[in-house]
Amino acid sequence: MHTALVTGGNRGIGLEVCKQLATRNVRVLLAARDYAHGEAAALELNEAGLDVKCVPLDVASDTSVIECARIIDELGLHVDVLVNTGAVLKKGRVISATWDDWRTSIETNLIGALRTCRAFVPGMIERGYGRVVNVSSGYGSFGEGLHGPSPYSVTKAALDALTVKLADDVASAGKQNIKVNAVCPGWVRTRMGGDDAERPVEKGAETVVWLATLDDDGPTGGFFRDKRRIPW
Length: 232
Description:
The protein is α/β, with parallel strands linked by helices. It has one domain: NAD(P)-binding Rossmann-like Domain (Rossmann fold, 3-Layer(aba) Sandwich), CATH 3.40.50. Helices cover about 45% and strands about 15% of the residues. An eight-stranded mixed beta sheet has the order 3-2-1-4-5-6-7-8, sandwiched between helices. Strand 5, helix 5 and strand 6 (about 180-185) form a beta-alpha-beta unit.
């Protein structure tokens, strides 16, 4: 049985990804910055008969990521699947957005995913199997015009670049069964997306879960929406 670590797993798309993965015979580590909320979410899934355990994780903290890796090791587990859903949406333009909003966006949306990749991808390389899914956005796509608020668009575009470079790195290491991809879930009815969003959370999680459970001949180094490649 593979083990998946899902950041931002206590609500929204992350929580739905946890649910869908667990129904596919994947052991799920639901990672949450707010441990109490994470435990409550995991308990609800446990009561539905799903194998989900909460682990504390703040992707904006080096110390928290190191501690999370230690906890997982003490549980006798290793991360086969890493799903980076944790993100913040800060509004504003390049100049008008506050420095705090820029720093928070960079620390969470970009460096947060970089931290988890550096913590858990080396183990995937050692074992010769892994799936990394970075939840990005069409707002971070040059091909779609970078239409979102500046802190969000810039950091999601950077996350896409991180995805490409990591896919190249693991391929150059000769590890063909480690797949690294990014996904745009679309405009989803979550706390971030709002009640007017066009997609239910189940649909938003669908392509994330597909990429997290790719067959050995699946794609890598791509950006996907609805299981189809979209432009970077």
